[in-house]
Specification:
- The strands form four sheets. An eight-stranded parallel β-barrel has the order 1-2-3-12-13-14-15-16, surrounded by seven helices. A six-stranded mixed sheet has the order 6-5-9-8-7-11, with no helix packed on it. A five-stranded mixed sheet has the order 19-18-17-20-21, with helices on both faces.
- Strand 12, helix 6 and strand 13 form a beta-alpha-beta unit.
- Helix content is 38%, strand content 20%.
- The protein has three domains: 243 residues, Phosphoenolpyruvate-binding domains (TIM Barrel); 76 residues, M1 Pyruvate Kinase, Domain 3, CATH 2.40.33.10; 117 residues, 3-Layer(aba) Sandwich (Pyruvate Kinase, Chain: A, domain 1), CATH 3.40.1380.20.
- Helix 8 crosses helix 10.
- By secondary structure, the protein is α/β, with parallel strands linked by helices.
Length: 479
């Protein structure tokens, strides 16, 4: 791990897939700048998942750096049933202005005028004049009338429709839980393997988060994926209830008009930052690098904007899972992150978001630590933390001086690696003030934090080893 990669604030979350699941590839991704890995449960059975996870843990051991693992649940996928094909294998084409029926007749393959839709809950939820999108928004229908098991619609945007294409309902709040039976089984499996984060797909309301957190029961952190317009109306409650947030721009861009996605992204990032919850910007960040060794200028600008908005992490999906240039994609993200963070506009952009302080001792200490570290030009702010909450509050302030988390718990070190700026060091809890300073003196040079004679700011809790009691701030000189 070069010092440069390490002193980048924004983190990189890379998705593993067939292109990247060997220990060597994982190690190369970390060396190129990846801090955390996403395992996508839509595409992985338990054996694949376990193999990927073991390979990450082996790389973590070898590189001596904590790595976060995020298991991404598939969520409820709504799809049409099977469609007919003619003798040439061509599928039906829906024509603009034509009537089109959706119904529950699952055994009859669809034609150019109807399609099976085996989801009773959709017919219960839709109403006349609402929009139904098929195949990632490529086809658009307008509902004319609906009864208990069918809907009459008019085709507004036509095109070919093949088997099992996805259905999106941007205007309806669906009465379906975010956790399907498959998700629940996948969740239990992932928790038994000690993952650090669980990503919950298609969150519509805070209740979805609360119900899933009950099952998780503190065994991992929960990240709510915001990809439905309904989630935007309940955004503050969702952010309040969750441990982290993902701006899932793929589905968000299907259900929202695309021109609204950048504004929605900014709102989600700022809301999460104010609440002190880590926020990840995801989907299509380096899409062209799935097939090309270099990105487009627009993609580079997109990453830079996420950095300037103060997001905690940016994510790669297909680019590293199935792409031809996975290592290059991570290296590109790393370079853009470092370059953007060295631009004077970066600090100005971060300082623009006034984050209200809560009147807790954590917030008081976190704010004071940043101020003191800045004034004395300290080399780092070192947070002794068991649960991770103080380090999280220091990172929330986006301080000018680099934050570090020293923790006795590998689990805490792992989940915090997804948080802005935090470099995590696993070390025994301090037993006294002298012990605290001597640990810092030992770990700081080893981890590229500071050298002998440098000053650092330390936050901790007295009595030592009591979780959740950060109440001291100490300036120390590395000896």
């Amino acid at each position: 791990m070069g010092d440069m990669t390490r002193h980048r604030h924004i983190k990189i979350l890379a998705t593993l897939g067939p292109a990247t699941s060997t220990p060597d590839r994982i190690k190369a991704l970390v060396e190129a700048g990846a801090n955390a890995f996403r395992l996508n449960l839509s595409h992985a059975d338990e054996a694949t998942f376990t193999k990927q996870l073991n390979a990450i843990r082996a790389a973590e051991e070898e590189l001596g750096t904590p790595i976060a693992v995020l298991a991404d649940l598939q969520g409820p996928k709504l799809r049409v049933g099977t469609m007919t094909k003619d003798s040439d294998g061509d599928v039906p084409v829906l024509k603009v202005g034509q009537p089109f029926t959706l119904d529950m007749k699952v055994d009859e393959p669809g034609t150019a005028s109807r399609a099976p839709l085996p989801h009773q809950e959709i017919f219960d939820a839709i109403a006349p004049d609402q929009t139904i999108l098929l195949d990632d928004g490529k086809l658009r229908l307008r509902v004319k009338s609906v009864n208990k098991d069918s809907a009459e619609t008019i085709v507004e945007v036509g095109g070919p429709l093949s088997d099992r294409k996805g259905v999106n309902l941007p205007d309806s709040l669906l009465p379906i839980p975010a956790l399907t039976e498959k998700d629940e089984a996948d969740l239990i499996m992932a928790l038994s393997k000690d993952v650090d984060w669980i990503a919950l797909s298609f969150v519509q309301r805070a209740e979805d988060v609360v119900n899933t957190k009950k099952i998780i029961n503190g065994r991992a952190k929960l990240m709510a994926k915001i990809e439905k317009p309904a989630a935007l109306t309940d955004l503050s409650a969702i952010v309040e209830a969750t441990d982290g947030v993902m701006v899932a721009r793929g589905d968000l861009g299907v259900e929202l008009p695309v021109e609204k996605v950048p504004g929605a992204q900014r709102r989600i990032v700022i809301t999460s930052r104010i609440a002190g919850k880590p926020v990840v910007v995801a989907t299509q960040m380096l899409e062209s690098m799935i097939k090309a060794p270099v990105p487009t200028r627009a993609e580079v600008t997109d990453i830079a904007l996420a950095v300037l908005e103060g997001a905690d992490a940016v994510m790669l999906s297909a680019e590293t899972a199935v792409g031809d240039f996975p290592i290059e994609a991570v290296a590109t993200m790393n370079k853009v992150g470092l370059e953007t963070e060295q631009d004077p506009a970066y600090r100005a952009a971060l300082d623009q978001t006034g984050l209200p302080q809560e009147n807790t001792s954590e917030d008081a200490i976190a704010a004071a630590a940043s101020q003191v570290a800045d004034t004395i030009d300290a080399k780092g702010i070192i947070c002794y933390t068991t649960s991770g909450s103080t380090a999280l509050r220091v990172a929330r302030g986006r301080s000018r001086v680099h934050p570090y988390a020293f923790t006795p718990r590998i689990e805490t070190a792992r989940w915090l690696t997804l948080v802005w700026g935090l470099q995590c060091v696993v070390t025994e809890d301090a037993h006294s003030f002298a012990d605290m300073v001597s640990r810092v003196s030992e770990q700081a040079p080893k981890n590229g934090i500071a050298q002998k004679g440098d000053q650092v700011v330390i936050t901790a809790g007295v009595p030592f080893g009591t979780p959740g009691a950060t109440n001291i701030l100490r300036i120390a000189t590395v000896d």
